Amino acid sequence: MSRIxxxxxxxxxxxxxxxxxxxxxxxxxxIVFTNGCFDLxxxxxxxxxxxxxxxxxxxxxxxxDDASVKSLGKGENRPVNPEEARVxxxxxxxxxxHVLIFRETTPLESxxxxxxDIVVKGGDYDESTTDKNEKRYIVGKEEVxxxxxxxxxxxxxxxxxxxxxxxxxxxFIVWDQWFTAMGVWGFNKEYITGCFLGxxxxxxxx
Length: 206
Known about the structure:
Order of helices and strands: HHEHEHHEHEHEHH
Shape: globular
Largest sheet: 5 strands, parallel
Helix content: 40-55%
Radius of gyration: 20 Å
Distance between the termini: 52 Å
C-alpha cells in the first residue's frame, strides 16, 4: 500500500465509519469522536486532535462540509480550503484513524450512528451544560451519556485560530503595501505575528 493510498483509505463515508466502529467495539477498543471545520490546519488544531486521540484507541473526526461552514457565519470567503482538501490533510495525521464529512447543521446524525465512547470538544464548550439552546452545549451529550459514554472538553491553544491567522495575514498585505508606498522596508513580520498571537509584547514593532 502506498503512503498516499494509506491516507486516502482513512477518508470514509458515514456507513463505512459505522462498520469500522462496530468492529472496534467487538475488540473492546474505545472510540473517540470530534468534529469541526479545520479550515487552515494550525498548531492549535494538531495539539487538540492529538490530545483527543490519547483519550481512546480510535479517533473519528467529522468535518463540516463547505455549505455548513458558510452557514456558521465565519465569513464570505470561508472555507478557504474545500472539504476534500480539509479531510485529506486531516487524514495525513497519524493519530487520526478515520475522517468523514457531515452535511447537516450539526454532527448529531454521525454521533448517533457511530456511537462513540467519548465525544470531545474544545474549551469554548461546557461539559456540564444541558440546555441544547445554549451556545456552549455539546451536541450529542444526551445521546452519548444515554449509552454509557461521556463528553469531554480540551483546552484550546491560546493565540491560534483560523480566523486570527486570516486576519493577521490580511494585515500583512495592507502593511506591505503601506510601507512600500511610504518607502519603509525591513519591518519584522515574525515579530508582528508574535504580537497578534499574544506571544510577544506589542511594543517596538517598527
